[in-house]
Design goal:
- This protein is α/β, with parallel strands linked by helices.
- It has a single domain, classed as Flavodoxin domain (Rossmann fold, 3-Layer(aba) Sandwich).
- It has six helices and six strands; from the N terminus they run E-H-E-H-H-E-E-H-E-H-E-H.
- Strands 1, 2, 3, 4, 5 and 6 form a six-stranded mixed β-sheet that branches.
- The chain is globular and about 50 Å long.
Length: 188
């Protein structure tokens, strides 16, 4: 069965970003694809140390929680990442993870190439577009396919559960998830 991995970079296991990603997962599952959500809550992810060993090892040399995620991403047809916005940017551990995932892919078999997916940003008030742009760089440099939606993949919310009240944001995410699933089914 075709599979989509959802990386949820929120440190809160049931916060707004997680709830938005659950909405995304529900749509993809309704389209007949398997979904696995990988929350960052409680995980340790270090920054790349530019050791260059990922090519010889086939994985990252750092011993934290990232290599099991990389294995799951390698085997999936899709990848969606969701991040809360902190000080106008994506969470640091997510960007560290994306840099390392990209390096492992590039140093080995380019397993990210032609995967379908994209980013989602969740914030109280602002920084969404800068965060989306920051995360999009990973998808584009990795030769991935990013479908659009009816607006940018951003949802507003601060207190847990508020994001679900952003009707337009949730509808945008639902359409994005549908487009990811539909595109995977068409090209794979």
């Amino acid at each position: 069965m075709k599979k989509v991995i959802l990386l949820c970079a929120s440190p809160r296991p049931s916060g707004n970003t997680y709830q938005v990603m659950e909405e995304c997962a529900s749509v993809i599952e309704d389209q007949g694809l398997e979904v696995e959500m990988i929350p960052f809550a409680g995980k340790k992810i270090d920054s790349c140390i530019a050791c260059g060993r990922c090519g010889e090892l086939g994985q990252c040399s750092l011993k934290d929680d990232l290599n099991p995620m990389i294995d799951k991403i390698r085997d999936a047809e899709g990848l969606i990442i969701g991040s809360p916005v902190y000080f106008g940017t994506a969470r640091g551990d997510l960007m560290s993870a994306l840099q390392r995932i990209g390096m492992v892919s590039r140093a080995n078999d380019n397993f990210l190439s032609w995967k379908v997916g994209g980013p989602i940003a969740v914030a109280r008030r602002g920084g969404h577009t800068a965060t989306l742009q920051q995360m999009l760089m990973f998808f584009f440099i990795s030769d991935m396919i990013v479908p659009g939606s009816t607006y940018w993949n951003m949802v507003f919310g601060w207190a847990p559960g508020e994001a679900k009240d952003d009707d337009e944001g949730i509808e945008t995410i639902r359409r994005f998830a549908y487009n990811v699933a539909t595109l995977i089914k068409k090209i794979k």
